[in-house]
Amino acid sequence: MDTVLAQIETLISMAGILSTRGAEDPGWIEHYFENSLQEKILLLSRKAGRQQEFALTVAKFRCALLDANFSAANVDVPTYESQLIRVYEGFSDVDHVPQALCDKADAEIVFNANMQRVSAQTTGAPAVDSGSLNVIRWKHLTKALDNLTAAGKLQDAKNLSRIHLRRGDCELLRRRLGQAPTSYDIALKSASTLLKNAEIYYRGAARLAKAEGATDEEWEALTKEAVVAAFLGDQSKYRERILLEKCRVQEVVEDMTEDGLVLEDDMLHLDL
What we know:
Blueprint: H1 2-21, H2 27-48, H3 51-71, H4 77-87, H5 98-120, H6 130-153, H7 160-176, H8 185-189, H9 191-212, H10 215-231, H11 236-258, H12 264-268
């Protein structure tokens, strides 16, 4: 059964690679899953009493395959959105399983990234008008935040520091919607509140990471908190991080830019 789970994880990775390539059809991945793994999954999950573990892994696969199909232009935005919602509809008790809520949140965040690419396309007719895309992106980022918040409140939740980090990331992604070229009105008006929320989540993540002994997460959280504090007008923490280890700060900032949390122009106003 562990072999089958590993095979599904491999397919998830392959679908992720295809998503970044854009034009390559992932049909062969779906064909392999349906013809070589689907029946085994049904049998093994029942025998081993590991239905939840298999269900979570299969849901992640469905999301990854959907992302790849969207990148390959096999599905349009409405279909992508509706199918994403359906992935976890059949998952029993999803609101009480921390990992399911976190995975669901991650799927919403990836969906937002794909919508961002749609809004940034410069050739061809847009699949959805920019105003509708902004509404859709805000809705799914808010869902992601709600799922992470719910996951963090459950007693059996693990990696609480990572959950809080992702909550901070969601707030920065929502803030991004208020910046050019999207300039979404709700995000623009809420920018200061979203930054303050992110600062609180990152501070909480750092505290939890320290308690967990998760040094990498603690460094990431403290650095992200310092970046947000600088955006709010206090660069003292950011300068302290620079003095401690400039290269590590640069790595976090580069990741934040790559993940779409901040714009390169944002960072030009900071002393790096």
